[in-house]
Amino acid sequence: MLLERRKNNRRKLKGDKNMWDWLRRILDFLRNLFSKKKIIAIDSNWEPVTEAGYKYRQANVYPVFRNQGYIIVEAQGVNANRAYVKSRLMTIKNLRYITGVGHGNYELYTGQDPHIIFKVGEEEEEYDKKEVNNRVVHLLSCRTARYLGPDFVKNGCLAFFGYDENFAFSWGYEEIFFRCDSEIDFSFAKGFNAKQAYEKTRIIYTDAIDALNDEGKYYIAAILQDDLDILRCPSINIKYGKENATI
Amino acid sequence: MDPIKDMIKKKSNESERTKEERLTEQLQLVAGFSDDGIEMITLEQLIRMKIALLAEISKEQQNKLTIERIKAQEKFKIAFLEDGITRELDKDEAIKHINEGSNIGEQLVRIEMRAIQFAFREAKKQ
Lengths: 247, 126
Hints:
By secondary structure, chain A is an alpha/beta fold.
């Protein structure tokens, strides 16, 4: 009788232990989920130019962030629209980095079709400063460094990386152009600050330009040089944020 | 080998032409103007005549050079990430932008002038 009772108690204890074990695991998982650093990928892919950039980044850029323990919030393809992006940026905690490929202009960045994602000025489409506050932004897009980037920084963005004029590339060599630009992402993913990210990116661009010239690809080298010349970030001007910014 | 250099080497190996052939082709392309500023001359002539590269070339002359060089290219296609324009330009569209003096046109001229400088530097090494 006594033996039977002890066995039952032991079974109950074991069951309780299992239950607590599971609960602890769930809590650990949730804690991990909410405390993990996150990035948002705002990539459009609605026509060949953005599709090429999206495919490259999907295959080469985001795996690096995942390997470094980041969670990727995917605002890509049809989800690269204002409502989706805003809802994610306003609600997700510990989101440190905004990156993406899309068409752009001096005062705006677009997503799919192309929806305006961020725009300076007009009230209806204007972004909320909380969307960029305390975050680092990198946009592979044309012209956004002219007005949009500095506007982000005025509204609390830690550092902005983008291009002052048209980012151009030559078909057949698109991977080389995307590889050079993505050094910005790789650097932040690996814990480098904005100054170091620019330095590493400049080296990759310069190496690629030299290698293209060595192969007699002068025109492609010239396009790449133009892209490097129009790259803007805190190391170029303080209006793009702080050189010591990290994600 | 450095991954980016490796990528470029592989890409280059896919091409039918050697780098020497590419340089020879560049030497035959117009790259400047004669002393009188009227006649366009090739990179080879420019080096032979010891005319300073792109010296005192007006905006109009730069446009002319760029158009001639784009016309001479076998294939021409350049892509942009700009909102609100045709995202890929072929030869005719590129020339139209240059003639209109658009922002894209100015960029194309800038790139072409840079390409001439790169080819000139390489040719001088030979």
